[in-house]
């Protein structure tokens, strides 16, 4: 990057946005209890002119760095943004200690629009900086770890217990952990079962190419059915089967509950999983398999030693898409009594308790992000270990 | 009589071999006997059936009718995987496994044959040395880290790994630039002079065929149009098609490219050696007549001095020596 680099417009806009949400929107709200509406507090109300001046100085520094974005300036900006994100929970700890009277057990702090917007803007700035600096996976994961540790430490210290979100959590921590475990088990089962089915379908389509069209159209149609409708469609047949065969009922198969959720989620997962498995196996270069056969490898050896390893990165991509999709969809399954983190979302919606909704939604988002990142990293690692940046032979 | 004797000694025999894909006859009742140690080049335009013929020999394509024999035994009598492990196979795109290192790629067939690991490692080192590739540099590399020429060398090494007596090569140098291609052709000739494999080599490039082949088999529309040595084809092309493959009016130059200067030069007597001015242009005795002719044309001279490998003057070559009546010297 040349020293006289042009200003970075993305960062400048984000800095301006951060300034306006910090100054214009309430950052937190203080509620005496769960039902009473809270009182929104702005930065000015919380910290007075000193806090406003400090924040404006920091943002001005960021803007100055974005105006002349040399590599060193961008690295400094990254450090600043990272620091802001890492200190955010600790700022909340300080504010909570000041605003909440420890004697009032049900008083709580809600996160205001300004804070959410700030979080969003800071994360965008972080992404922009990471992309500009083109850092490798190690610093990225390192940064993620630092932020996660900071948040975890703030939570573990108990300083955030008066957050509305944490009040909801402490009110039902046992239920929360059970729901979290259940959610993860459900998703794992969905991914495992659809992987097996997709592998079988992909292999069948490779052997009998006429199957291909029919299979993909059926899977596409399944994909278009709204999830609630699919649950409804499964209700009657499953209830009938459970009544007809008692051993199914003993297993817990009923018209509602985990059985229809599992079936529906597998049905949704099959299209991305099967398509990726099929394409991955099919697009392995013909000359490589030709050479493998010509050298005297048996069909089994060609598959296990050549075709499958070469297809694996693309297949992993299918697993990633499926897992992320299932993590989100499993929330909807709570509607038919399948449990999981979705339970809190729908309870919260019913009671107009937004913090309870967040208690369900935030872990789902976090898990989805983690799984997405982990599978992406795994596929990238695999590609790298197979030495496949490109397959072209240079001159 | 001569034909029968040759057939008895043949390593690979194709006896009225036909391949039909549905209604299309790709290879039409061809007969071919390739003696042990011969480098036989199948040449023709695309779609003439040369690749199909090659791939029928290791049963990647099953022939429809006729018999293919190796060492007098029908290839259908072998288990097809065992047959292929006995036959080296190299293809244009190399077909190297992108997820395996060079060393692992080369050791493929020995591993299929369950050689002990130490023997495989020794064989891989031996082959890398044979192909002029430094083991410490190349053994751990992946195929995408190689240049086209290096990748194709590894492809050849892999084909040679289990020391097969028969080697099938399907346009192995077709995707390489001219300079790399030429150096690999030289390499193949050098290897062949040491190893004496029975090689079936497919190409569409007649110059490559003329350079490499002990015997050229010209194919067209699934049939063999003509077969013989490069010299024989150039002297008497069977028809207009073979003639056009041979380059039409360039045929004289192609022929000149096959003849070494040493065959036409006049040896110098000791007395003459001293007389020659040192600055006179010279060629090597191993150069081709074509190269000598080109030098004469370019420099506008009608005679050249000839040096041997050590640079010693051994003879002279004049335009008159180059241009002799066809057949007079061969």
TrEMBL record, chain A:
Residues 180-375 form the ABC transmembrane type-1 domain. Signal peptide: none annotated. GO terms for biological process: glycine betaine transport; transmembrane transport. It comes from the Bacteria. The chain crosses the membrane at residues 42-67, 74-97, 109-129, 141-160, 180-204, 216-243, 255-271, 326-350, 356-378. It is found in: Cell membrane. PANTHER family: GLYCINE BETAINE UPTAKE SYSTEM PERMEASE PROTEIN YEHY, GLYCINE BETAINE/L-PROLINE TRANSPORT SYSTEM PERMEASE PROTEIN PROW. This is ABC transporter permease. It comes from Halomonas salipaludis. The lineage of its organism: Bacteria, Pseudomonadati, Pseudomonadota, Gammaproteobacteria, Oceanospirillales.
UniProtKB/TrEMBL annotation, chain B:
It holds the Pfam family ABC_tran. Its EC number is 7.6.2.9. GO terms for cellular component: plasma membrane. It is found in: Cell inner membrane. Coiled coil: none annotated. The keyword Mitochondrion does not apply. PROSITE patterns: ABC_TRANSPORTER_1, ABC_TRANSPORTER_2, CBS. One of its GO terms (biological process) is amino acid transport. GO terms for molecular function: ABC-type quaternary ammonium compound transporting activity; ATP binding; ATP hydrolysis activity. Residues 12-246 form the ABC transporter domain. Keywords: ATP-binding, CBS domain, Cell inner membrane, Cell membrane, Membrane, Nucleotide-binding, Repeat, Transport. SMART domains: AAA, CBS. InterPro entries: AAA+_ATPase, ABC_transporter-like_ATP-bd, ABC_transporter-like_CS, CBS_dom, CBS_dom_sf, Gly-betaine_transp_ATP-bd, P-loop_NTPase. It is a peripheral membrane protein. Signal peptide: none annotated. Residues 265-330 form the CBS domain. Belongs to the ABC transporter superfamily. The complex is probably composed of two ATP-binding proteins, two transmembrane proteins and a solute-binding protein. This is Quaternary amine transport ATP-binding protein. It comes from Halomonas salipaludis.
């Amino acid at each position: 990057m040349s020293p006289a680099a042009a200003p970075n417009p993305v960062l400048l806009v984000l800095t301006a946005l951060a300034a306006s949400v910090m100054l214009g929107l309430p950052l937190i709200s203080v509620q005496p209890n769960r039902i009473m509406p809270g009182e929104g507090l702005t930065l000015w109300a919380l910290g007075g002119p000193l806090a406003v001046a400090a924040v404006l100085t920091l943002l001005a520094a960021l803007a100055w760095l974005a105006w002349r974005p040399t590599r060193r300036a961008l690295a400094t900006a990254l450090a600043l943004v990272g620091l802001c994100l890492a200190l955010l929970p600790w700022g909340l700890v300080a504010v909570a200690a000041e605003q909440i009277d420890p004697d009032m057990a049900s008083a709580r702090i809600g996160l205001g629009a300004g804070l959410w917007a700030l979080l969003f803007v800071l994360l965008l700035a972080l992404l922009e900086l990471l992309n500009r600096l083109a850092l490798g996976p190690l610093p990225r994961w390192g940064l993620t770890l630092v932020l996660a540790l900071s948040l975890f430490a703030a939570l573990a210290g108990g300083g955030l217990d008066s957050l509305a979100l944490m009040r909801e959590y402490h009110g039902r921590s046992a239920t929360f952990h059970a729901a979290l475990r259940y959610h993860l088990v459900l998703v794992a089962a969905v991914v495992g079962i659809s992987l097996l089915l997709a592998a079988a379908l992909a292999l069948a389509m490779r052997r009998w190419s006429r199957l291909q069209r029919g299979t993909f159209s059926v899977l596409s149609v399944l994909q278009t059915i709204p999830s609630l409708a699919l649950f409804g469609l499964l209700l009657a047949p499953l209830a009938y089967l459970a009544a007809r065969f008692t051993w199914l009922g003993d297993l817990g198969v009923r018209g509602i509950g985990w059985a229809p959720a599992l079936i529906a989620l597998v049905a949704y997962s099959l299209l991305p999983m099967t398509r990726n498995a099929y394409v991955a196996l099919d697009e392995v270069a013909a000359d490589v398999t030709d050479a493998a056969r010509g050298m005297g490898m048996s069909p089994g050896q060609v598959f296990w030693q050549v075709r499958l390893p070469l297809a694996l990165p693309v297949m992993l991509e299918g697993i990633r898409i499926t897992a992320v999709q299932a993590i989100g969809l499993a929330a909807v399954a709570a509607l038919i009594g399948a449990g999981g983190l979705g339970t809190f979302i729908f309870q919260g919606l019913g009671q107009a308790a937004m913090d309870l909704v967040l208690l369900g939604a935030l872990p789902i988002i976090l898990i989805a992000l983690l799984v997405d990142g982990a599978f992406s990293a795994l596929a990238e690692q695999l590609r790298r270990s197979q030495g496949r940046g490109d397959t072209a032979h240079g001159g | 009589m001569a034909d029968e004797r040759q057939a008895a000694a043949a390593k690979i025999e194709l006896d009225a071999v036909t391949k039909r894909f549905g209604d299309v006859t790709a290879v039409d009742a061809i007969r071919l006997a390739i003696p042990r140690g011969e480098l036989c080049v199948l040449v023709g335009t695309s779609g003439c059936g040369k690749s199909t013929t090659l791939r029928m020999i290791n049963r990647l394509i099953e022939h429809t009718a006729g018999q293919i024999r190796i060492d007098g035994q029908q290839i259908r009598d072998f288990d097809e995987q065992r047959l292929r492990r006995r036959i080296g196979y190299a293809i244009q795109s190399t077909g190297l496994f992108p997820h395996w290192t060079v060393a692992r790629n080369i050791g493929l067939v020995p591993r299929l044959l369950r050689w002990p690991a130490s023997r495989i490692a020794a064989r891989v080192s031996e082959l890398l040395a044979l192909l002029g590739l430094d083991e410490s540099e190349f053994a751990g590399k992946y195929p995408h880290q190689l240049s086209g020429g290096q990748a194709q060398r590894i492809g050849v090494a892999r084909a040679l790994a289990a020391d097969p007596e028969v080697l099938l090569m399907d346009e192995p140098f077709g995707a390489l630039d001219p300079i790399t291609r030429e150096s690999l052709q030289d390499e193949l000739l050098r290897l062949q002079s040491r190893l004496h494999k029975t090689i079936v080599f497919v190409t569409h490039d007649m110059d490559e065929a003329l350079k490499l082949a002990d015997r050229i088999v010209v194919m067209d529309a699934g049939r063999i149009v003509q077969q013989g040595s490069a010299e024989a084809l150039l002297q008497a092309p069977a028809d207009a098609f073979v003639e056009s493959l041979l380059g039409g009016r360039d045929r004289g130059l192609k022929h000149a490219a096959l003849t070494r200067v040493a065959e036409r030069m006049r040896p110098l007597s000791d007395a003459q050696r001293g007389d020659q001015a040192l600055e006179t242009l010279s060629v090597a005795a191993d150069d081709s007549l074509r190269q000598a002719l080109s030098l004469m044309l370019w420099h506008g001279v009608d005679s050249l001095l000839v040096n041997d490998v050590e640079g010693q003057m051994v003879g002279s070559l004049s335009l008159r020596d180059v241009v002799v009546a066809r057949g007079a010297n061969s």
